[in-house]
Design brief:
The protein is mainly beta and 338 residues long. Helix content is 8%, strand content 25%. The chain is built from three helices and 14 strands. It has a six-stranded antiparallel beta sheet, covered by helices on one side. Helix 2 crosses helix 3. The chain is elongated. The protein starts with 51 loop residues before the first helix and ends in a 5-residue tail after the last strand.
Length: 338
């Protein structure tokens, strides 16, 4: 499939950046709200395969990714930079935003920043060129992909209309990357891979431990608004969703109490990987930690993993749920097979 490289309008840059403003008004450190936005849909249906003519185009460029798209023709409509407000469980806040209409083909969105990874959905599925993507960060994959005279090594993490990774060529830009969109894991490094779903307690605890050093050797910072490199929210429920291998960006704290994810258990039955959840109140009071081990035979304290406000990822002693009348309740993830 080919498209014109002479029309200046197709080289116009459009973009739409997700809010990256960290949530304000966090509660006391160690007991913080982190219920998340509750978006667990994440991935759409599996998209159809790229057209054979598309493969012929890709073969013409050296050292490039295999782009996934279908043929079609339609021009996106530009949008001006503007300020808008977003509201929801975290309150209303101003956020910079800009529109990113996609150009005239149908593009497959991938699970990771690798065009050979599985498809999680498609943009321009019904009307070519009419979707607008919402990108929060981009990754330099180190592998060049070209379409006509335009080339890029970048793929953007998008949350709308499908959650996943998309080649920046989908917006037909003249530069290599998307201006104004933060770059994560750049410099041609291997793109981050999302945690692989696992059924054992040891796997969940191992994933939980990765955030202790994931930020250049340091802990992942806490945020109710930001998404980490692996696609999960940087709050407590996003962190636990990551450790359990749930769909990115993760469910919220209340969602973790769902009968499809966990079941209630007795406090003294807690085992490695189980959860203690306070699902009461609002996003500034709800919290969840992942139990690792009892610290003594009397069960008066335990060691846990958590993502807490004003600090980030922590691995420390806690007593949540052990005090009489505590709002913290013990739950066991249903996916554990051991």
């Amino acid at each position: 499939m080919t498209h014109s490289t002479t029309t200046a309008r197709r080289r116009t840059i459009w973009r739409k950046v997700l809010p990256t403003i960290a949530a304000a008004g966090i509660g006391a450190a160690g007991l913080v709200g982190c219920s998340g936005d509750g978006d667990t849909s994440g991935h759409g249906t599996k998209a159809e395969k790229a057209d054979k003519a598309d493969k012929a185009d890709k073969a013409q460029a050296a050292d490039k990714n295999a782009l996934s798209r279908d043929t079609g023709a339609a021009k996106g409509k530009g949008g001006a930079l503007k300020l808008k407000t977003t509201s929801g469980e975290f309150g209303t806040k101003a956020a910079a935003a800009a529109d990113f209409p996609t150009w005239g083909t149908r593009w497959v969105v991938h699970q990771t920043a690798d065009t050979s990874s599985p498809s999680v959905g498609m943009i321009n599925k019904d009307v070519a060129g009419q979707d607008r993507i919402t990108a929060d960060y981009q990754i330099d994959t180190g592998k060049k992909a070209c379409e006509g005279s335009t080339c890029s090594t970048y793929m953007a993490h998008i949350t709308g209309p499908v959650n996943g990774f998309l080649s920046v060529l989908a917006v037909d830009i003249p530069e290599d990357s998307l201006p104004g969109v933060p770059v994560q894991n750049g410099g041609g490094q291997q793109p981050p891979k999302p945690p692989q779903p696992g059924g054992t307690r040891a796997e969940a605890l191992q994933r939980a431990s990765t955030w202790l050093t994931a930020n250049g050797g340091g802990r992942v910072p806490y945020s109710q608004a930001k998404i980490w490199k692996d696609g999960y929210r940087q709050d407590c429920s996003g962190y636990v969703s990551m450790a359990l291998g749930l769909k990115a960006p993760g469910t919220n704290t209340v969602g973790l109490t769902s009968g499809s994810i966990t079941k209630p258990i007795a406090v003294n039955d807690l085992r490695p990987g189980d959860l203690l959840i306070d699902a009461a109140g609002n996003n500034n009071t709800r919290h969840v930690v992942m139990f690792e081990k009892w610290n003594n035979d009397a069960h008066t304290s335990y060691t846990s993993y958590e993502q807490r406000g004003d600090f980030g990822t922590d691995h420390t002693t806690r007593t949540y749920g052990l005090e009489p009348g505590s709002e913290y309740k013990p739950y066991r993830p249903l996916k554990f097979t051991d």
